[in-house]
Automatic annotation (TrEMBL):
Superkingdom of this protein's organism: Bacteria
Pfam families, per database record: DUF2303
Matches recorded under InterPro entries: DUF2303 (IPR019276)
Organism in which the protein naturally occurs: Microbulbifer okhotskensis
Protein name: YfdQ family protein
Length: 275
């Protein structure tokens, strides 16, 4: 009596399934698994249990305080926190484990700080070519945050600085020099355009605000320039040493988290981690 190919295949699958089941049973896996005769794939049965076999997932928040509380609740010496100063984010991996006993690295918490309204407005202003009206309105809207100063470094009342921006006078003068010799002639022209105001024009201003909730307030120094090449004057304000300030804010976040999470024996690092 001969058997067809399908019967032989089923017998082989049955034998192999029994052998795999014995191997899995001896391994004593923490997550239940079984070998099914479907191309002999491993099937995770966790979804059929009443609960998970271990705690995992990602918590995400914009609150520095809540991020710290969550890390304190679940962190330990095998947890690590990574801070990205450029994006002002932080990520804690609670079950990273060690090099000898690595974890699954799938139980995490992520912090993404949100810029305050004042800091957003300041970054939008930075480098923008504003009309007199828009610059004056910005200074009026954030008068409480602004301290204006002259070219000599003396403080100027904000109200007078705004009046100076609103009443600009553009003065233009042109000077030409002509020289004629026996074998050559030359001509040069110099045009001088100057912006003036009845009030003292500010050379710049300091903008004080809290850039991110949970961090310290900072003073941003801006240089104010007047562009006179077009039909109407334009004003531009640029933040001095902005990249250095952003690096300092990233270090502040890292030091803040490091001092708070040291109680749970968790270490913090500047950088990122991909499992």
């Amino acid at each position: 009596m001969t058997m067809d190919q399908s019967a032989v295949k089923e017998i082989k699958e049955s034998q192999t399934t029994a052998e795999l089941a014995a191997v899995i049973d001896r391994a004593k896996l923490s997550t239940p698994a079984m070998a099914a005769p479907v191309d002999f794939q491993m099937i995770n049965l966790e979804k059929y249990l009443q609960g998970r076999t271990r705690y995992r997932g990602e918590m995400e928040t914009a609150s520095l305080e809540d991020f710290e509380k969550y890390c304190m609740d679940f962190g330990n010496e095998n947890s690590k926190c990574f801070v990205d100063p450029e994006s002002m984010t932080a990520k804690t991996i609670f079950n990273l484990g060690t090099t000898q006993e690595p974890g699954h690295a799938d139980f995490t918490a992520k912090l993404r700080l949100i810029k305050t309204a004042e800091f957003k407005a300041l970054l939008q202003l930075n480098g923008d070519r504003c009309t007199q009206k828009s610059m004056a309105e910005f200074m009026e809207d954030y008068a409480e945050n602004i301290i204006c100063y002259s070219a000599d470094g003396e403080a100027i009342p904000t109200s007078k600085a705004i009046a100076a921006v609103r009443r600009l006078t553009i003065e233009s003068s042109r000077k030409e020099d002509h020289a004629v010799d026996d074998f050559k002639s030359s001509r040069s022209a110099l045009e001088n355009i100057e912006a003036r105001s009845e009030e003292v024009l500010p050379a710049g201003f300091k903008f004080e605000c809290t850039p991110y909730n949970g961090l310290e307030a900072r003073s941003f120094d801006l240089r104010l320039s007047i562009l006179t090449g077009g039909e109407a004057p334009r004003l531009t304000a640029r933040i001095k040493r902005l990249e250095a300030i952003q690096e300092a804010m990233g270090r502040e976040l890292q030091m803040h988290l490091s001092s708070m999470l040291v109680q749970s024996q968790m270490k913090t690092y500047i950088g990122g981690f991909a499992a």
